[in-house]
Amino acid sequence: MAIVLAVIIIDQIIKVWVKTSFYLGEDVELTSWFHMRFIENPGMAFGMTLGNKLFLTIFRIIAVSLLIWYITRLCRDKSASKGYVACIALITAGAGGNIIDCVFYGEIFNNPFPPEVASVVPWGDGYGELFHGMVVDMFYFPLFSFTWPEWVPLIGGKAFSFFDPVFNFADAAITVGFIILIFGYYRYLGGKKNGNDTESGKKKEMEHQSAEVSE
Q: Fewer Cβ atoms within 10 Å of its own Cβ: the N or the C terminal residue of the chain?
């Protein structure tokens, strides 16, 4: 649970700082490949949107509640892989960090027109209702860009840049958790399974040898 709390605290500190220090749409170029670009989105990670806002927020809360319950079970299981628990904790914390934005930010922040910067306001004087806040994003990494050759079907002549989505610390935690889970934990599962198969094979071999001796 320490990972969950640490990620959520860091995520919220960054978001509150950006929200109260940058105006909406402000883009600060720190390097050619790293910008601080303040945007807000009503949807999921990396600015994606999906369905009704209230439904999405409630679904997130239910999902995170189930993940927290799952983590507590894993923590009691001494045989559970610490790496696996850490991955689930990162995903849970990332989702929880974005839920805080959705649930509370509409009530506690105003949303002035640029270049005015937002500020904390008394409860209920914010830009939106409870469960209808916007998720704060700020990290932008335009690592490289190019124009597709004219002969490429459909996209020929169009500009392409990587990585376009603007994201936050919570999104990064979710992504890292999923990547390690896919490329690390499945290897762990395979090793565990193979280990069990080897142990089972040795047991059968010993039983066979015992039977031969008896004969």
A: C
